[in-house]
Amino acid sequence: MRTDAIIFDMDGTMIDSMPWHAQAWVEFARRRGMDIDVPDLMARTTGRNGTECIVELLGRPVSQDEADALTHEKETIYRELFAPRFSEVAGFRQFATQVRARGLKVAVGTAGDIGNVEFALGHLGLEPAPQAIVRGDEGLPGKPQPAIFLEAARRIAAAPEHCIVFEDAPFGIEAARRAGMRAVAICSTHTPEQLAGPHVLAAVRDYTELMNTDFLESIHVATA
Q1: Which of 80, 168, 177, 187 has the most CB atoms at less than 10 Å from its CB?
Q2: pLDDT tens column, 16-46
Q3: Cα 185 from Cα 215, distance rounded (Å)
Q4: pLDDT by residue (tens digit) across 142-187?
Q5: How far apart are CA 169 and CA 93, in angstroms?
Q6: 104: region left, alpha or beta (phi > 0 left; psi from -120 to 50 alpha)
Q7: Mind giving me the DSSP string for 28-60?
Q8: Taking the CA atoms of the chain, what radius of gyration do you get in angstroms?
Q9: Residue 9 known to be catalytic
Q10: Which member of 4, 9, 11, 113 is catalytic?
Q11: 134/117 Cα distance (integer angstroms)
């Protein structure tokens, strides 16, 4: 099948941020005197938008103002923790450069908000920048719903079946399936078994490993 576009998830896929999100929840809970099972919360929320995460955290409906305030607090903690130790998933920038050199369109489809997107892209300094970015604070449901990926494809005028999603989380892999897209599993935080599916073309630890498999050379890229 022809490939026209690559859609990258952000956290855990472009940047090695998931351990810092976990630590941010720990610190958030400490400041608020809350008892949180962080691994369980991460399993229930990774790939979901900020409001959905807060609903899962509190176990009750929340107003948009409350969700926004709590999300802002937690994500500010995350950026403060991660900034001094910022790192990409190994090989990401080199791989992204190769993707664009082959004429593929590039989009980002993330449940992250504008603050986290600007933080990540500011540190990565991608040139050229992604052609479209769809965020979790734009009113779309988070993963495993396919809306974020479908909107990313729409913005770059690519048919879903001609897109490959790069994802590190089970909800994201499922969202790609529901969107009718193929996927590559980046196993930075989950095992290949946790990210398996009939639409998953490859499961690798990082982009250095993927580039060693000549993945881009193996897919059919339209030249017209």
Answers
A1: 168
A2: 999 999 999 999 999 999 999 999 999 999 9
A3: 13
A4: 999 999 999 999 999 999 999 999 999 999 999 999 999 999 999 9
A5: 20
A6: beta
A7: HHHHHT----HHHHHHHHTTS-HHHHHHHHHTS
A8: 17
A9: yes
A10: 9
A11: 10
